[in-house]
Amino acid sequence: MSDNEWSDPRLPDRMEWSQPHHEPPPSRGRALLAAVVVVLVLLAAGGLAWRLMSNRGTPVAEPSAAPLPSPQQTAPPCPDPKLRVAAAPEIAPVIEQAAATLSKAGQRCSEVQVQAVEPGLVLAAKPQPDVWVPSSSGWLAIAKAQGRTWATSGTPLAWSPVVIAGPEAISTLFAPEGKTSWSGLMQAAVQERLPAVRMSDPTVTTTGLLGVYALNQATAKVTPDAGIAKLQALTLRSRLENAAVNQAEIFRQMAAESDSNTATYDVGVFPTTEQQLTTYQKTEHRVRMSGSAPADVQVDADYPYASRKGAPADLVKRLRAAITTESVTGAGFRVAATKGALRPPADVRLLLGPAKQWSDYKAVAFQVLLLIDASGSMNEKITDRAGRTATKASLLRESGASAAQLFGAETSIGMWYFGTSRASEPAHTEEVSFGRITDATDGKSRRLQLAAKIGSYRPVATSGTPLYQTVLDGVDEMRGRVKPNTATVVVVLTDGADGGTRFAMTNADFLKKLTAGVDPARPVPVIAVGYGPDANMPALQGMAKATGGRTIAATNPADLASGIAQAFLAAHATS
Fold first, then answer.
1. Which of 201, 240, 210 is CA-nearest to residue 351?
2. Over the stretch 549-566, which tens digit does the pLDDT of each residue have?
3. Contact in structure between 299 and 338 (CB atoms under 8 Å)
4. Element holding 292 (H helix, E strand)
5. Total-model pTM
6. What SUPFAM superfamilies does this protein's entry cite (predicted)?
7. pLDDT of 145-182, one tens digit each?
8. Among candidates 64, 56, 54, 59, which has minimal Cα distance to 88?
């Protein structure tokens, strides 16, 4: 993994360290007071402010009073600090408080400089800080995978459980009987029982990183098939109102909100830390918030104290010793891990994989035509990942039912089956007419129609596979539906090769017809899932390449759900 894999183009290339804090001199009476007022007015007019980085690069703290020079002489400028510290925003004030105690008597400038920075931004920052206090040990593992090793000092400074929070007015919707769960949050979002669901970017924040990991673990606990579990976890991603929320900004907005009804709708439900929630709750606000740690999978944000090679060891040690238990608990943190909480995995890929998929998902206006192979070979028996004997068709029914929930309200969709058992039959049949997934026909939404059709999927034993003709017709159909600012794709799933029907053609003839119709102004990528060991992967790769699409190999039939999940992600990564 390269050092810049997690870099964010929205961010500066370098960490901009602010000037160290200055201690103001004693008051010199009314004349000096007047000078203070004049200087402060000039500073305000000039727009000077002490800036601490947040994950959006916006100020998160107001300036301390700047020192005034003595009338007799101008004070010399502060030298560069000896120790630069990057800390998660919520614990940065605790570190600053400790740093302030290290100044020697009469010392004008602090030797320690603290910046509030979300962990994912530290990974991409240059230069790196001397000391890093992220909000999860998982970030240190990610840094190590990038080739940067941090040495930790003792146990973490603090812990804080990740909770699911929202306005008290809707607590019965996301926390029935006062209890929350990741699976309950997912179901409430799918059933549209919540005004909004928001999460922070898992490549930047700890609540995002650990939240996505915990959600995947929660679905895996109740779903034996790993691919279907992944599909279910992605369902919540498809329903997010905002996938890059800043929890601190939400709490600031709520503190200033005067209309509780508007706030309830605007804020919705989101994961945060217990410390951030309780800090908000300590002060009376018009919009009251509530929340709790999810009952199905609990995870802790922990705050390791880590230093890089070459940092001034004595100052690193002194700062660590200056951070007291009283200051940690006084800020709302815990001093021990939650019993039973899930720790970050030893294999960092288990954190990075779901986080990257989550972050790469694009909630764009989306048009998709599903082409499902209904030939006889789909009735073949296989053994799934849980050791069960099943058929390819039964796995498709199970996986497809979950997939039907993944498409967001911005999706328009249609579905065809392809397979012929008699010469007079067409190459494909329309099972679900194309249209917006939330629209209803015959009293049932298209999403429910899609789930019902896949649930009743029964391939005909004697059917051949008119793969090429179906793809040509599907691409031509969707090319006529292309419109600006909308991703338009064809997803085809097959377990075999073209043949056994009157529509059979050579691969060369197929590609000639397919490429002849390619129009750069109306792109329709084909995302082809080869299901099982007999799928003609070279043919699928050819059609994907010719249209700018992607090929996904689910060579083990038990991996069908994973293949569908990858196709779903690939479709939403297409713009």
1. 210
2. 999 888 777 677 777 777
3. no
4. strand 289-292
5. 0.70
6. Periplasmic binding protein-like II, vWA-like
7. 999 999 998 999 999 999 999 999 899 999 999 999 99
8. 54
